[in-house]
Task: structure prediction
Amino acid sequence: MNSLTANLHLMMVPFYRPTAERHKILIEYKAFPSDLYAVESQIKFHGYDPATSLIQLRARDGEAALRNEDILEAIEREGDSIALVMLSGVQYYTGQLFRIADITAAAHKKGCVVGFDLAHAVGNVVLRLHEWNVDWAVWCNYKYINAGPGAIGGCFVHERHALADLTHFSGWWGHDLKTRFDMDAPFTPIAGAFRFRLSNPPVLQVAALLASLELFEEATMERLRAKSERLTAYLELLLDRTIDAKHLSILTPRTPQDRGCQLSLFFHDEHTVKRVNSNLQKNGCVCDYRKPNVIRVAPVPLYNSFSDVQRFVSILRQSLEEQQE
Result:
């Protein structure tokens, strides 16, 4: 349903209910701007100040990724005042995969609601939201799910909230199908996440999404994830062996369980990263440049091969050598 940011707001209507004692939202520092803007505006809407009601978790000095123990410690320390823990599944900039089960358990122990933005996790890693007891999650489908720019988004709500008396925005498309066409019936919500739908989804977007999901169902996320771990490890190996560390470093965690298929390469020179990114694109590499000085590289298992990885590293090495001439 809808798009990612719209769904973030729709989920915070029932699941961010601040009180004088419990009004804070916890996110990671440098979360994707949409997430930051959404939570800041929700805090302001409820009459609070992001300066005191927003906790942004920072990595330790000299480190790019958050340590899991630091996340859990912050929840333990601040949990009594936190109304909502809302982190990414995979952090867009560093490529870190957060340990969703650990974080959810720790937050629930302190009485916090837990939601995740899974924009970079869906189609990238295996997700067991029900099993991990996550309260809610939202995502877009235009990244790893390949449904195209502006594709319809998605939403998960745990079944324990299926029939709960929640304050939320209602629409005709969330009404029980058995009486929806009575037209004058009082709103009767569909149990579960469907109750949060507002209106008829765009047919062309749904068709594009369905075509992609059929491929994922055939391939299975378990098999894709297994190939992904090998592909990313191969990319990491070639970078370590063939690229001089004076040029770049890898921000993404080195442990497979703490990352998806993305490696974020931090270049130590601003001019070099821009020229290298341009050269990669000219040679057929589809990468992504993010300030400051990061090129995100993602060997996606559904359509990338080991030879693609080898070719990319060869072009990257050649591009760096050209900058030194």
User: Anything to note?
Assistant: The mean pLDDT is 95. The first strand starts at residue 24 and ends at 28.
